[in-house]
Specification:
The chain contains eleven helices and twelve strands. By secondary structure, the chain is an alpha+beta fold. The protein has two domains: about 90 residues, Malate/L-lactate/L-sulpholactate dehydrogenase, four-helix barrel (Hypothetical Oxidoreductase Yiak, Chain: A, domain 1, Orthogonal Bundle); about 200 residues, Ribosomal Protein S8, Chain: A, domain 1 (2-Layer Sandwich), CATH 3.30.1370. Strands 2-3-4-11-5-6-7 form a seven-stranded mixed beta sheet, with helices on both faces. The protein has a three-stranded antiparallel beta sheet with strand order 9-8-10, with no helix packed on it. Helix 1 runs antiparallel to helix 2.
Length: about 350
């Protein structure tokens, strides 16, 4: 697979130019571009610039509101429901987590649900945001297309429904868990197809129960849940909390935004932000987490294991490496983005590199 290294600044400028061309306010375009680039920096390549052509198609088809009125529609001291007015999910989720941070600062904990949002990229981007405020976060979402049936069934009634958690540390990298409730997120399937690679066994099966390895045939089968029936149960609960509780789509109401560029998706996200200062000294908490992290990392390893990783460590190292040397990007994706640049009459990604 042929790859090129793209500077983060070049990627961000290209994405920002595309959204600005399509009529998004400059500040909103910059916010989305920054989050999408951050996704690629940390290695979440199924949720970064690979999604740009799809977002642009939805915007051009009228499936996304370019000037949303993102607002609180229900509120108590430690909770809120945010209506995203069908805006870009990156904007709605960002507004939701900022509201949760503000409320948690007063109440110690806050739950914010979003509705009429859209696909927002990797969950970890929003779970990690409160870390800068010395807070913790749990993030839940309903995926933007159903790719999984209930355990033992064939009707696609559930999505990848991700969960993310970000835990404060002192000297160590923060503990950041970001996982789909399926063995692989659907964005990874799209990334495999773009890279011309096969999926490993265990990601998907066809309707006859046989392993499905070709990502270009993903529509012929479905994703498998993590842990069998336990992953199915987790996906269901996350969907009810992130979708149904806040009045967002769940189950049969989920719109497949991969195939439908016009319909309002009414995507739901939920954010639980916790201020650890409400529970005790934040410095003591951070030091305790550091100690636990080191105990785990330095614990005895099985034969053949080079290192025990903590959640988020590999993404942290990847981010540092990619920020310095560039983001690896398949030639096939760059070629697709070249086509998009010509359609939008904006400088290509290759030109942005040299700018």
């Amino acid at each position: 697979m042929a790859m090129q290294l793209i500077s983060p600044d070049a990627e961000r400028r290209f994405i920002e130019a595309a959204f600005t061309h399509e009529g998004l306010p400059a500040a909103d375009a910059a916010t989305i571009a920054g989050l999408m680039t951050e996704a690629d920096l940390q290695g979440s390549d199924g949720h970064g610039i690979i999604r740009l052509p799809q977002y642009i198609r939805r915007i051009r088809a009228g499936g996304i509101n370019k000037h949303p009125d993102i607002r609180i529609v229900r509120e108590r001291a430690a909770m809120a429901v945010v209506d995203g007015d069908n805006g870009m999910g990156h904007l709605v989720a960002s507004a939701g987590v900022d509201i949760a941070i503000r409320k948690a600062r007063e109440a110690g904990v806050a739950w914010v649900s979003t509705r009429y949002s859209n696909h927002a990229g990797p969950a970890s981007l929003y779970a990690a945001r409160p870390l800068a405020e010395d807070m913790l976060c749990l993030y839940f979402a309903v995926g933007n297309a159903n790719h999984m049936p209930p355990w033992g069934g064939q009707d696609m009634l559930l999505s990848t429904n991700p969960i993310a958690a970000a835990i404060l540390t002192g000297e160590e990298p923060p503990v950041i868990l970001d996982m789909a409730t399926t063995v692989a997120a659907y964005g990874k399937v799209k990334a495999k197809a773009k890279a011309g690679e096969q999926m490993p066994p265990g990601w998907m099966i066809d309707r006859a129960g046989r392993p499905l390895l070709d990502p270009n045939r993903a529509g012929e089968g479905f994703l498998l849940p993590i842990g069998g029936h336990k992953g199915y149960g987790l996906a269901l609960v996350i969907g009810l909390l992130a979708g149904t509780l806040g009045g967002a789509a769940m189950g049969r109401d989920v719109v497949d935004f991969n195939a439908d560029h016009v319909s309002v998706t009414n995507t739901g996200q939920a954010l639980l932000v916790i201020d650890p200062s409400a529970f005790g000294d934040v410095g003591v908490f951070k030091a305790s987490v550091d100690r636990i992290v080191r105990d785990i990392r330095e614990s005895e390893r099985l034969p053949g294991t080079d290192r025990i990783w903590l959640p988020g460590e590999q993404s942290h190292e990847r981010r540092l490496r990619n920020r310095k040397s560039g983001i690896p990007m398949p030639d096939a994706l760059i070629a697709e983005l070249d086509v998009l640049a010509r359609e939008l009459s904006i400088p290509s990604l290759r030109e942005a590199v040299s700018a």
